[in-house]
Amino acid sequence: MPIEIKLNDRIAQVKILNQNENLLEVMIDDKVYHVDLMHNDEGSFSVLVNNHSHNMTLVPSSKPKQYTAYTLYNTYEPEVIDAASRYIRNRGNGSIAQATNRITAPMPGKIVKVLVGAGQKVEKGQTAVIMSAMKMESEYKAASDGIVKSVNVEAGNTVEANQILIEFE
Amino acid sequence: MKKIYKILIANRGEIAIRIMRTCREMNIRSVAVFSDADRTSMHVRYADEAYYIGPSPSKESYLNAGKIIEVALRSKADAIHPGYGFLSENAGFARLCQENNLIFIGPSPDVIDRMGDKIEARKAMIAAGIPVVPGTTEAITSEEAALGTILQIGLPVMIKASAGGGGKGMRLVLEDTEILASLRAARSEAMAAFGDDAVYIEKYVSSPHHIEFQVLGDQHGNVIHLFERECSIQRRHQKMVEETPSPLLTPELREQMGNHAVKAAKAVQYFGAGTIEFLVDNQQNYYFLEMNTRLQVEHPITERVTGVDLVKQQILIAEGEELTMKQNDLSQLGHAIECRVNAEDPDNNFSPNPGRIHSITEPLGLGVRTDGYVYEGYEIPIYYDSMISKLIVWAQNREEAIQRMRRALYEYKITGIKTSLKFLERIMDSADFQEGKYDTSFIEKNKAFLFQEKECDNETEDMVILAIYIDYLNRLNKIIPSKQLNPAENRWKKYTYQKNFDRL
Lengths: 169, 504
Hints:
The complex is a heterodimer of chains A (169) and B (504).
Chain A: E1 4-7, E2 10-20, E3 23-28, E4 31-39, E5 44-49, E6 52-60, E7 67-70, E8 75-76, E9 79-81, H1 83-90, E10 102-104, E11 109-114, E12 121-122, E13 127-133, E14 136-141, E15 146-151, E16 158-159, E17 164-168
Antiparallel strand pairs in A: 1-2, 1-9, 2-3, 3-4, 4-5, 5-6, 6-7, 7-8, 10-17, 11-13, 11-16, 12-15, 13-14, 15-17
Chain B: E1 6-9, H1 13-25, E2 29-35, H2 42-46, E3 49-54, H3 65-74, E4 79-81, H4 91-99, E5 103-104, H5 109-116, H6 118-128, H7 143-153, E6 157-165, E7 168-173, H8 179-194, E8 199-203, E9 209-217, E10 223-235, E11 238-244, H9 251-267, E12 272-280, E13 286-292, H10 299-306, H11 310-319, E14 335-342, E15 344-345, E16 351-352, E17 359-361, E18 368-372, E19 387-395, H12 398-411, E20 413-415, H13 421-429, H14 431-435, H15 442-445, H16 447-450, H17 458-475, H18 495-503
Parallel strand pairs in B: 1-2, 1-4, 2-3, 4-5
Antiparallel strand pairs in B: 6-7, 6-8, 9-10, 9-12, 10-11, 11-14, 12-13, 14-19, 15-16, 17-20, 18-19
C-alpha cells in the first residue's frame, strides 16, 4: 500500500530502504537520506542528518491522518494520503471548500452580533457577523455580492474553529 | 498595622501564580478563585485553597465582586490582591473590601476613582504641574458629541475607553472615513470589557515613545520611584516587549521624569504600587498619559534590575508598614528585557489561537525567568486574555540581554497552539531594536523584516515528511495517552462489571 504525505502543495512519496533500529535509509521522492531518528509516543522527534540536528513535534489533529507539525520556525499542516483517503479524493469529494459562499469561524470564540438574516441581499465587503475571542472583537464580511442562504448562529453562541456561521447562495 | 496571614487572589493565570509565589515566600496562605473554564488552570493547583465562583464569562465570575467578597469572608482571608485587569482598578470593589473589613491590596478607593477616570486624572496632573497631552477634559457618552469633538481637535486622534486599559476599547483614527466605525467599535468594546461606554478623545502624538515609571508609596506619605520601563514595542496598542533601562533616556531626563512621577503620586496621596505612563517624543518632550493604580504586567523587569519584589512591597504597604528603602538606596543594575508570549498567530494578523498545549519546554539558564501558567495537556480557554507567559531575561548590559533573549526564545518550545515566539525572535533580530532606535511605530515601520516568510530548506521539509510517515505507522495500532486533566470518572456503573473480574 503506497503512502504519500501532503505538505502544502507538495505530495511526497516515502520509502524505507533499510532500517537498523534508529538508523534509517529512506527515499523521499527521488532523494536518499541516511538518518538517525529517535522519537516518542507523544510526537517529539529528534532527527540527525549528516550530523545536522532537526527537532520537531507532531500534534495529531482531531481529523484522522492530519497533523500539525512544529519545526524551529514553521508550522505545517501535513496530511497522510493512504488508500482510503485516495479513494475519497478520486471521487471528487476533496476537502477544499469554496471559500466565497460561506463564512466560517477561523478560531473558537463567541458570536457578539449577527448583522444579516436569511434571504437578505448583501454587498461585497458588508459586515455579516462580529465574533470575539480572547477579548478581541473582529468583523467578518461577505466575500462577494449575494443573498444570505442561512444563518447558523445567533449572538451569544459559542463556536468551534471551522464552524460554518453564515452561508450564501 | 494589621498583619496579613491569608490572601485571596481575585485573578487567574500567570499573575495569580506570580502573587502566590510571594505569598509562599512570606508564609502567607493563598486562596484561589476559579470559573467553570478554570478548574484545571494552574493557579488553582498552586494555591493552598481554591473556591468556585461562577460561569466562564468574566462578568459572571472574576468580575463578580459580591461573590468574591463572600468567598474571602468564608475562607477567612485577611486581604484581597486583585492582580491586574478584572477588579484591580475598580473603586467600588475596593470600597466593598473596606466595608467587609478586608484589606484591598492597592491604593485607596478614592485614588482609584480619581486616577481611573482619565479625565479626572488629567485635571489632577495639570494641577500638580505635570505636562499632559492636548484632549478632552470631559467623558463623552454620545456618538454625536464624540464626532463633534473629533472634528474640533482634528485628526489624528485616539479614542479611549474612559474606564479602560490594556488596549481594550481603544482606537486610532487617521482618516475621515474611519471615524464612525472606530468610534462604534471602541464604545462597544468598552461596554463589553468595562460595562461603561464613555470615551475620551485626545490628540494623537505620532510615533511617540511609551515610557512608564514604577512608583511605590506607603501609608505614611513616603513615595519612591523604581525607574522606568520602555514599552514602545506595541501592536494594536498592546505591549509586546518591554525593557529597562530605556535606550532613549539620558541620566538627566531619567531623574527629571522620576521626580515628576513621584510628584504625581504624591499629588493624589498615593499608596501601594503604581505606574505613571508618559508619552515621550523624539525631542524628549514628555507628557503624562495615565496612571495605573495596580501592578503592571511588565513589573518583573523592574524587579530584576532593582532587586525589589514588588508584590512583597505591596503586601507590606497594605499591612501599614513604612517603606524601608530610600530613593538614594535604589539603582538599576544591568539590563532586563521582557517578551510577552501570546497564544496568537503572527502570520494571520495576530488572531487569537486558543487550543490545547501539546508540549511545552521552558527556557532555563543564567539570567532567565518565565512567569507563565500553562502546562502540557492544558486547554487555553477562549474567555480570557491570550497571554500565556512572560519571558524575562537579565544581563550585564543591553547587548548581552538581547543575545540572551534570542537564546531563551530558541529554547522556548510550545506546541499544540500558535504563539508569538518566532515573531519575538525577529524583533530581537531587527537592526532598529538592536540599535535601540525605536518608538511605538516600530512594528509598522519594520513590517517587511518582521513578517518576511522564512524560506524553509528542503532538508527540514523532507524530515517533517519522514517524521509524519514514521508517526503514522506508529499510531496505526496504538493508543496514545493524553496529558489532559480529566474529572474522576463515575465508576458506579462499572462496579458490578469490575467485581465479576475480581472473582476470577
